[in-house]
Amino acid sequence: MSEEELTVFDLLTRPGPDLSTEERGEVKKVARQLLEKVKATVVLDWRQKAQPRARVRLTIEDTLDDGLPRVYTPELFEQKVSVLFEHVYESYQGEGKSVYNKVA
What we know:
The chain is mostly helical and 104 residues long. 65% of the residues lie in helices and 5% in strands.
């Protein structure tokens, strides 16, 4: 896993829930998918405009809803969506710029 994927995986698994080996594999897959989709959704100045911000949050919600194991309760799901949105907001500026790579 890349540093980006590992960060997303950690946000999804810490704290809790307790996952089986198979569920951990599912969460790793979701982390990869989420990064691909978010990077495609983040545009220049996305943080300053309500519609692009909402699109990024919806992308996170949809990806997690489609891929996370059912061990995630609705409350935990909402918590993880919020934590991941905050991470994306802080880490991705748009147009390929992020804390992980400054230039596309």
